[in-house]
Amino acid sequence: MISLSAFAATVSGPVVVLPNSYYLQPDQGGQTKLVKHNGSRLLPGTIAAYVVSGQIVIGALGPVPAASRDITNDLEFTGTKDTRYFILDTASGKLETDLDEATWRMRIKELGLRTDLQIYPPLPWQN
């Protein structure tokens, strides 16, 4: 209970709780940022799409596509050739970032995750 109270003390506003005290939180512009348990931002960019599989969070960086905002998060994310991807192992804290799609998909397979995992844009924040 003490660690729960300590975590709650560092978080303000709406969040999406991820495994092992990581979380998603809106930035000043309403875009989604990935944050460590101590409140510091983990990635310099915003989260365009993500999914959690066990202790692993995988996703893409960038702004959420406008069409996804209109239909909440029902649309699968489709990146471009310039899209950068990330993989976070929340158990170890290991973060792989700035991956191209081919490398990202290869790493997903190497980690033993389902290769058909789809990532989706986060829901719009209700501040």
Q: Topology of this structure?
A:
Elements: H1 2-10, E1 16-17, E2 23-26, E3 32-35, E4 47-53, E5 56-61, H2 66-70, E6 85-89, E7 94-99, H3 101-110
Antiparallel strand pairs: 1-2, 2-3, 4-5, 5-6, 6-7
Index terms:
single chain; 127 residues; 3-stranded antiparallel β-sheet; 3 helices; 7 strands; disordered N terminus
Can you give me a brief rundown of this structure?
The protein is an alpha+beta fold and 127 residues long. The chain contains three helices and seven strands.
What does this structure look like?
The protein has 127 residues and is α+β, with helices and mostly antiparallel strands. The chain has one domain (2-110). It contains three helices and seven strands, in the order αβββββαββα. The protein has helices at 2-10, 66-70, 101-110, and strands at 16-17, 23-26, 32-35, 47-53, 56-61, 85-89, 94-99. The strands form two sheets. Strands 4-5-6-7 form a four-stranded antiparallel sheet, with helices on one face. The chain has a three-stranded antiparallel sheet with strand order 1-2-3, with no helix packed on it. β1 (16-17) and β2 (23-26) form a beta hairpin. The model is unreliable at 1-9 (pLDDT under 50).
